[in-house]
Specification:
Rossmann fold
């Protein structure tokens, strides 16, 4: 019985040590990626304000290096999706190069700002999508370029979104090939004529 007790105690201590070590390693990794909140970022094009969440890579404040940038729509979901953790782990493992990520939350006018329609329908779907595109390319991006060390060339800039947040850029940001290299989308919302519009040359 004593031997069984000792073995159980040793096993328990080993498990606790592993748990503590993993927790400390995760805490250290998270500390390498700084998250800055711009509480109320104003938009002239949309006439509203919203926060911006800016993820800075490790050693950002200890070098003069410039970085690629990734702009993410529906930025309010990034905490739930554990973006902070994902960035920290991928950069630490050298699976991605360090970059600056800008998460842009939506507002209560998401369907208007992210709408898929070229011409808004009776419910106003997409009637502010063009203005939202201008907000990102003419307000958010210049702000980042002026205040953070992000590279200004299109080859170093990308936009990511899901559902409507991924579809909005394809239809309503004309001419952005000079501003953005990559448009990354998942679970596209293909309604309101979206399938037909995606096939347009």
């Amino acid at each position: 019985m004593l031997l069984l007790f000792l073995l159980t105690a040793v096993l328990l201590c080993a498990l606790l040590t592993i748990w503590w070590w993993q927790r400390e390693r995760l805490t250290h990794r998270l500390s390498t990626v700084e998250v800055i909140t711009v509480a109320e970022f104003p938009s002239y094009h949309l006439g509203n304000r919203r926060p911006l969440y800016i993820y800075l890579p490790p050693h950002y404040h200890h070098s003069q290096q410039t970085y690629k940038s990734l702009y993410i729509n529906d930025g309010q979901d990034m905490a739930a999706l554990k973006l902070h953790h994902t960035l920290a782990v991928l950069i630490a493992r050298q699976q991605i190069e360090p970059l600056v990520v800008i998460a842009i939350p939506t507002t209560d006018e998401r369907l208007q700002e992210y709408g898929t329609a070229i011409a808004a329908n009776a419910q106003g779907l997409g009637n502010k999508a063009a203005q939202y595109g201008c907000f990102v390319t003419e307000e958010v991006m210049p702000f980042m370029q002026q205040n953070y060390r992000v590279r200004e060339c299109a080859a170093e800039t990308a936009v990511l979104g899901a559902s409507l947040g991924g579809f909005v850029r394809r239809l309503t940001w004309p001419g952005t090939t000079q501003i953005v290299l990559a448009w990354l989308a998942c679970s596209l919302a293909l309604f309101g004529g979206g399938r037909r519009q995606m096939r347009r040359p």
